[in-house]
Design goal:
By secondary structure, the chain is mostly helical. The protein has 5 helices and 2 strands. It has helices spanning about 5-15, 20-25, 30-40, 45-55, 60; strands spanning about 1-5, 65. The protein is globular.
């Protein structure tokens, strides 16, 4: 799972001189979405792209991959051997 480095989001807000609500608006997401990722929820692909473009930073400056929560996936480009399918 891709997660955000909360200290980097705070730094981006400081550099851009915006609050959380304004940053969320500029990214086209809700403030709850920003709160969620800062509290450890996974980041969506769309938001990853928007944050990179908004900040001008590299992926590794803002995000990290939480291996513990990604244990069901291997990183060889293949799908999990026994994926869980919800009915």
């Amino acid at each position: 799972m891709v997660k955000v480095k909360p200290e980097q989001i705070k730094l981006i807000m400081k550099v851009k001189k915006v609050g959380l609500v304004q940053m969320a608006k500029e990214l086209g997401v809700t403030r709850q979405a920003i709160h969620g990722i800062m509290s450890g929820k996974p980041v969506s692909g769309k938001l990853i792209g928007r944050l990179i473009q908004y900040s001008g930073l590299d992926f590794s400056d803002i995000f990290f991959i939480d291996i513990k929560e990604s244990k069901d996936y291997n990183f060889t480009g293949n799908a999990p051997e026994n994926p869980q399918v919800e009915s």
